[in-house]
Amino acid sequence: MSLLLFACEGGQIVLPNRNLVLADRQTGGNLIVNPPRAVWERSDLNAAELTQWSFLVAATGKAMLDVLQQLEGGCINYSEAGNWALNDQADPAGPKTARNHRSVHLHLLGRSRATTDPAWPWGEAPNFPTFAERYAWAAGNKRLTATECGKIVMRAESLLLARYGMQPSQLMAWTACSGCAYPMPLVPAPARSICVECQQEEVG
Is this model's pTM higher than 0.85 or not? Predict the structure, then answer.
């Protein structure tokens, strides 16, 4: 499952499913930024929503560049896709229309100058897999660590306040999960400071 790290009026910062990380942490890392509400096309967001989402996207990308050592001299690719959700083999199986099945989200993909990953050569466009090959292709990719994500969330939060003019009331309180130490929002306030992923592992 994906892991919600941070939320504000601009949307959410999400760590991708550990089985479908598009860029290994050494390659530069992969985070997802969702808009403030689910839409199939970004033009469905109103002006305020699009502005706040843009602030969150920019703050997250800047935070990755600021705190990830593997991105020194590198950059971020901002990729809005959603194509796999439209594949005939994706749930529910069969032909799909974008309006009914696509969900807008941005993948922030770190591009390290030092990477040796053949799918992510420096100075070239990345090579993404087909729908059927996606899990095998991503099998060796590791998530950004809890420490890295904590630093990113802290830096993004400070940028939203200082650079983009958000008010503290527009940002959700967060803490570190007592199980895995990844950041997690506290709204609505949980009974325990433990993320959903750790809760599921406890049950399992």
Answer: yes
